[in-house]
Write a structure and sequence with these properties.
Rossmann fold, three-stranded parallel sheet, about 55% helix, about 10% strand
Length: about 140
């Protein structure tokens, strides 16, 4: 499965976040070896940015969250030239950012579902294999 930042962020920030229990269940299943998680390398910067601007965590907690994420050994996938080209097409057709389109391009390339709490991704479920975190499990 492909996860986006909207899901992984919930592993580290619980307050005022919906579906944290479902996000935690994904993490538990991954830790138990039941599921494989893949993310585009773009997620690292997105997660760092989301944590950096989160006022609910101290700087130390933000740093610890990033260290923890790396220690999980989630499969980080390099973004290919074809992924970027596909992202342009997806972004233009669906009026979303390249950042959002990269996740969809990667999910298409790997033939895996994208699990997301991002409403922009969720509304594209008819065109892509997208599963809302709310509907997962």
């Amino acid at each position: 499965m492909i996860l986006d930042t909207s899901v992984i962020f919930k592993w580290y920030v619980k307050e005022n976040e919906a579906d944290t229990a479902k996000a935690d269940l994904i993490l538990k299943r991954f830790a138990d070896g039941a599921d494989t998680i893949k993310v585009p390398e773009l997620l690292i910067c997105e997660l760092a940015n989301a944590l950096f601007y989160c006022r609910r965590l101290s700087l130390r907690e933000k740093e610890e969250a990033l260290i923890n994420f790396f220690d999980l050994n989630v499969k980080i996938i390099s973004i290919s030239k074809n992924d970027i080209v596909s992202s342009f097409t997806i972004a233009k057709k669906h009026k979303i950012t390249i950042y959002d389109a990269v996740y969809l391009a990667l999910a298409n390339r790997l033939h895996e579902p994208l699990i997301t709490a991002n409403p922009k991704h969720q509304k594209l479920g008819k065109n892509f294999q997208v599963i809302s975190l709310n509907d997962y499990f």
